Amino acid sequence: MAAKGTETVLELRDVETYYGRIHALRGISCTVRAGQIVTLLGANGAGKSTTLRTISGLNRARHGVITFLGEDITKKAPHEIVEMGLIHVPEGRRIFKGMTILENLGLGSFTLKDEKERKKRMAHVFDIFPVLHERRNRDAALLSGGEQQMLAMGRALMTRPRLLLLDEPSMGLAPFLVKEIMRIILRLNRDGVTILLVEQNARVALQLAEHGYVLETGKIVIRGNAETLRNDESIIKAYLGD
């Protein structure tokens, strides 16, 4: 593994995305390096989720280039991007209700042929999320919001991601659960997972991240060290809400 911050894992150069005639992303350029947590911030409608969807291939960039581990993925299909180790945990969790926790986690490694490796990955997920092990045979529909978020993240970990895109992991959660999810994000990062985070709570996101980008109407208007952004009250008030 490359030393933290030395290898460019993800790079966007002048990326533009449209929804029909709506110009959603307007020349986005950003970089995520190995071992970092980088956060995308901005008000609702700024383009944060669209950026993640464009990276993961769910939306197609009309202009610009996206590279992952040095390879151009701009025109790759979503499943090809997943196979490379770039995993997107979307807003709203998107777990499979009517299926157990075990079955949901199994879908995260459905292409894996090595059963021993699958069990090893499952054990790793249960070590991070003990509550999922306790309820492993329970229908995912019966889980709380926080547990569903843990399941969505656990399913992503079954792929052994090189880069994890997290879209609003704390949305709708009670404050004590937000702290737990953020603690887990830090643990994943310390375990070597590089993370690109979209998070509604800007102050929390900037405590976790090393670098931040602030979006407004599809453009990056501010970029910089997370600590600097966190301590600049004018930025917080102007773009992120006081």
Q: Write the CATH fold name.
A: Rossmann fold
Rg over CA atoms = 17 Å
By CATH reckoning, the class would read Alpha Beta
Q: What is the number of domains?
A: 1
Task: Please write out the topology.
Elements: E1 8-19, E2 22-33, E3 37-41, H1 48-55, E4 61-68, E5 71-72, H2 78-83, E6 86-89, H3 101-107, H4 115-128, H5 130-134, H6 145-157, E7 163-167, H7 175-190, E8 194-198, H8 202-208, E9 211-216, E10 219-225, H9 226-230, H10 233-240
Parallel strand pairs: 3-8, 3-9, 6-7, 7-8
Antiparallel strand pairs: 1-2, 1-4, 4-5, 9-10
Helix pairs in contact: 3-6
Characterization of this structure:
By secondary structure, this protein is of the alpha/beta class. The protein has helices at 48-55, 78-83, 101-107, 115-128, 130-134, 145-157, 175-190, 202-208, 226-230, 233-240; strands at residues 8-19, 22-33, 37-41, 61-68, 71-72, 86-89, 163-167, 194-198, 211-216, 219-225. It has one domain (8-97, 158-240): 3-Layer(aba) Sandwich (Rossmann fold). The chain is built from 10 helices and 10 strands. Strands 6-7-8-3-9-10 form a 6-stranded mixed β-sheet, sandwiched between helices. A 4-stranded antiparallel β-sheet has the order 2-1-4-5. A hairpin with a 2-residue loop joins β1 and β2 (22-33). α3 (101-107) runs parallel beside α6. The protein starts with 7 loop residues before the first strand and ends with a helix. The mean pLDDT is 90.
